[in-house]
Amino acid sequence: MDREDLIKKWLDNDLTEKEAQVFEALKHANLYKEIIDEAKRFDGSLNAKVKPFKTLENKLENKTSPSLNWLNTAMKIAAILVVGIAVFTLFGKDKVNSFQTEFAQNETITLPDNSLVKLNEASQLEYNESKWDKKRALTLKGEAFFDVEKGQRFDVSTDFGKVSVLGTEFNVISRDNIFKVSCFEGLVQVDYNNESIQLPAGTEFILKSGQGKKTTIAISEPYWLKDMSVFKNTPIHMVLKDIEAQFNVTITKQFDEVDLNFTGAFEHKDLENALKSVTQPLNLKYDIKTNKVVVIKHAQN
Q: Is the dihedral angle over the CA atoms 236, 242, 247, 252 positive or is it negative?
């Protein structure tokens, strides 16, 4: 066994009894042991006491060329490892981009392929930028409108299902136990509950309470992009929740909301006009207590 292999086995604590005797007979065995002992004593939390330079210099002067060659090799290997670790730390991790909107806040996001996402209020979006060229995929909680550049498959994952396209315009809502996908251009595939459905332009899919339904739509883009909320035979608690989100207010209901549905719309520009649009058709009245609190009750009360 040559000198370097013997030293490597010693460092790995893998010497046989006979090999250990050979190692002990090496000229610089004691120096190797001292180096290892000093390394074990090192603690970054303590102040290391460095021996005088002259002492180290005297030890190095007595080393032979093979020893220096081996130590130089070890130092090169250590340097390569340090550089490798640094490169992995800086560049090896995935770059995940996350976006979140608050109440009454929208945000437009440009994806790496120039696809556009318009994120509605109180929503979250996340995607892996490092892997985007290989896999166009993101996760959504809330509501967003997508204008997707043509290319490979584009997946939007939600808590209720996944929406897949190649290049199109569509809107996704995934919140409050409601999953709704509206296709405005191209073709969309929706996967949910181990089932799949395809939506051509002008159709939408609604999954509510585990029941899926496909219908037609006659609009070119979601109403919320025009600062409007539109409802058709929608439970009043969902309508009022949308007002809370759009205007960042809290609504206290002092009326019986059972079987009370609303068909109509309100604009997002003025709270009082929005309240009038919703309450008057349902014979309700509102009282704005503060800029954050609204009470709604029956008009006769």
A: positive
